[in-house]
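Sample A.
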Amino acid sequence: MLSVKSLPFLQHQPHALKSVFLSTFRSHTILSPSTTRRALRLPLTALSLLRDVPASPRSYSPTMSSSDQIIEHLVFFAVSPDAAPSKPDEMISGLRSLTSLDSVAHLTAGPIFKNRSSAFGKFTHMLHSRYRSKSDLGSYTGDPAHVKVVKESVLPVCDDIMAVDWVADVAGGVVVPPPGSALRVTLLKPKEGIAAEEKAELMRVVGGIKESFPELVDYVSFGENFSPARAKGFELGFIAVFPGVKELEALDAMGEMVELQKEKVRHLLESVFVVDYAIPQQSSSSL
């Protein structure tokens, strides 16, 4: 029989939390061994789906106040399979050199760790950068150093490029994800003609991953794309930042819980693009 003594991780939780967890599991007359093991291995994450009390946030070293906005800029590159083996590395080296530009608050570039979208499986590399304003993003785009890298190192080796930009409030005020962090980047294309209320609900559910999985996700960023020209119809962008690849993969191990989140918005979506990216130790800039 389930009890607080048999579940040591509950002993230091509030009484109301213990009661909800135990009553929920006792209400199921049949639980498969694999389901029970998964639940008991992931105590705080499982509890987060049952409670109204938010988990204690991780400690941050914010570089901007939580009320400040940032501009997210993501670019995805489909390197040609015919490109010489050295060319992708040259491209990434050129892109990383742009961290020295005054307009850039953060920039990282490298191979995609895992592309989870079969329809867009050709994309092999990505760039993620952040700016203090749209004006700074414009300065970066038009800077001669950026133009040179794109012309000489990117366009000659890429079969396709996709890019999105959005304005975001980042929880905790974090601007620069620490080296070694892992990102799950999701782009969403809502079904044509959905109501504004439905789009708002879509954003609410997607943005709520931090509250649903507080022990795994450091913080999230999401917003509406304001640069449609190269976005292939994707209107909404979302980034979940994890402490590392281990935490990102732990989320994947919770298949049933993740599917519950997806099911809430699946009927509103025409297309989804998802990739995972691990920030190299040496490629994250500082303010």
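Sample B.
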Amino acid sequence: MEALIASYADDSSDPESNPTPPQPSASRTVAPLPPPPVSLLHPPNSLVSLDSLPISQVNRVRSFPHVEGNYALHVYIPVHIPSATRKELATFLKKVTALVPTLHAVDVDVPLSSLLKDEALLEKVVLGREFHISLGRTVPLRVHQINSMVSMLRQKLQFQRRYLIDFNKWEIFVNDDSTRTFMSLEVVAGGLAQIRKQIQAVNEVYKLHNLPEFYKDPRPHISVAWALGDISDTLKRMVEEEMKKCTARSGSQQKSILTSKFSGILCKIGNKMHEICKFQEE
């Protein structure tokens, strides 16, 4: 799925921002782009064909104008949700979607309401893809800067220790122009210190290439669903109510919603992927 959106930044995907205040706006050019082919995600033994699911026709907005010789740069930690965790998350998403039916799956733009009757399909479409924790802004990089960018990132980040990333909190984010609201899982404890150090290292490399640094108070997260407009108050209230119900049913406060192993750092430039550091899966 990442390969389908590598050449442009999509405001219907992860906002890469803090919720309040929103990130600064860049000069934008609205360019309608076709949605990715959801048939590529078709899971075996599903009772519903993905080709039959409705896809919202939304205008995707480039975060910077296309310029010949420029390539979109994105440095991030890939995150995959363990299969053992997906069922619980899918159940929670179903309950929130019943209260906020305008939610869509990030990247594929499929309304979550169309997936409620097939939980296996919901898990696959919404939770079975690669997520990312951004370590730097998505910015344009000149072709002559590519080699030095990759080389410096590797020098700064190649020696990383394995650690666990705990997503402890559901958080609601709004993009800079208030056209999208995002339902996200935020890192607020385990892994936060390590991620912030990695962000600082990326900032140093960006600065040497005259690129804008990341936000001063970064809030690492992955975004799971989105809705049109700024519905942050409503969505936050519904999410908090459902979390309270979950706590009441379990009889204890959930320490971590999702735990993922840090697997490495990737740098995508245009359509090409560069491994900055990577651990072998155990």
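B remarks: The chain is about 25% helix and 25% strand. The helical segments are 83-99, 119-127, 146-157, 192-208, 232-250.
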